[in-house]
Amino acid sequence: MPAKYSHIKKRTPNPKKNGKGSGNGSKQVLKHRHPHHPNPHADRSVAQAMSAVTQLERAISRILLLRYEQDIARLFSTRLHDIALVHLPTFVMRCVTLGGPSWAVHNADCEEIKNFFRAAISMDMRQAGERVATKSVLWSYTALRHFAMSNNVTICQKRGLHSMRLLPHYLSLKGHLDVLEALPPPVMSKPPHLGSLKEGIQALEEACEQKYARWSQVPPEWQHDWRPKVRLGYEKVTQTLWRVAREFDVRGYGQVLREKLSTKWCDCGCSTDHLGEVCEKTVREDEEESGVRSGKQREWDGRGSGIFGWETEEEEDIWELELDFSGMDPDDLDEDIDPSMTIGEIMEWRFLKAEREKEQGNTAFRRSLFDVAITHYVAAHKIEPELPHYQLNLAAAYLKLNNWIAAEKACTKALSQHRSGKGYFRRARARKMLGKTDDAIRDLRAILRFQPSNNDAITELLDLLPPDTNAPTPSSSSADQQYLEHLHEHLGIAKPKTIKLSPFPRVPSDSQKLKIVILPTNDVPIWEHHHEVTEKGKQKLTMTIKTNLTPREAEMQKLRRENTAYPSWDRYVVKKA
Prior knowledge:
Elements: H1 25-33, H2 40-86, H3 88-99, H4 103-107, H5 111-125, H6 128-150, H7 170-182, H8 198-213, H9 227-245, H10 255-262, H11 270-290, H12 313-316, H13 343-366, H14 370-383, H15 389-400, H16 404-415, H17 421-433, H18 437-450, H19 455-464, H20 477-491, E1 514-518, E2 527-533, E3 539-545, H21 551-560, E4 572-576
Antiparallel strand pairs: 1-4, 2-3
Helix pairs in contact: 2-6, 2-7, 2-10, 3-8, 3-9, 5-9, 13-14, 14-15, 15-16, 15-17, 16-17, 17-18, 18-19
């Protein structure tokens, strides 16, 4: 949960004086009448009332959580669409410059491109909690508020919605929860209200035209009919981006808010009441400034419930905002993080420190010091719990120590965020050694669903399955086809889709292997911000390089000098392999 929602504590009632005006007079009478034997019927009614409140609060927290997951998927889908328009034209341009105009057409689905996309998306997804949580909670409170208004529930102007007033409408509330529970798992998909790729295609074609127009001798492949090749390659690379994004499971991200909506949500009603106190003012101010837009007053209208927003692109594109505001709740920070650091600095510091731990673990792993490696991998995951590859490293070390249970658990954690072939393969090995043959087979088949030619997975799967005594012997092209069909049937996997032939024949340059190199961090200076007043009385913001660094800032500079690769959409180069 965002910092401003973190202090969810049970409000204690104001102490009241004993006397005729006491609000607890009925309790005093009850206590006086039954000093030694409490009324069992009264106790039962109180217990039933508390049970109803508990059910209500758990339904509310669950609604907030499910809508949060839907919000992450939708908002990050908007982010991916922007990446396709802004960053992919540059990426394709760098590739076709080295491989020719049709290179992307024939190589858009190669592992080199997909691995680069996986690394960059992982870095974006670790920001999901900070970027989505505040808006998601506000949107869900707004939807809960509209539900209350549609049922004539009074809403306090200052304290907002009180959950107790929703008790008579619990069944309707539960009905909405059931609808959310029945929705398919949230996945990345292009929001229908966003435009086409026309803008990106135009930018790519203009860049290619300007680049080769300056050459005195234009290469033959760039002289004629290069536009449709570049355009198709860009479209195929965009399709690969969406396929890779769907490997990620949004339900494994946003752990801070997820924990507070589950284990830390109070069943007595104070958590919802506190949410109302915080959000009500913002909702009313927004309505005063922009008015109540059409559709917003319908019951359960809003994000997170399977609806693709209100076609308000400016509200959806939150990844363009810089995370450079400080003031995070000290209770949510690690002990060694300076509270004055901005969120952007904190996230960079966490990643660099986690990568240092990982590299130390890799060094120990290569020396067969697996216990030492495990210590470093655990430390890396503790620093960056929403980057799944640390758990995969941990699983590899556990496998070396024959600790199959711990290896399976580490892989399951990683797969809850990113469904990778490496995660499934290592978990299959652990499950095989634990005697969980059926589970191991399912993991290997999961690999072959998105990596049909993974020979290691095929070999392991054949080893686990009963011997195939009816396999045809390949002797000709038709027999080879029959053998492959029989093999897929025996493995229990679907027949690979027929690859659609490209309208452009393959040329020698299309076989050129390219390598995408992620650039390391460098020694970026730390800047100080100063507010100055001009002669006209206006404030002016100036920046100077900070020389008197705090211990935390000095450590940040030291980490940057270690040249750690920092995956992003604009810090890479494409080279010939």
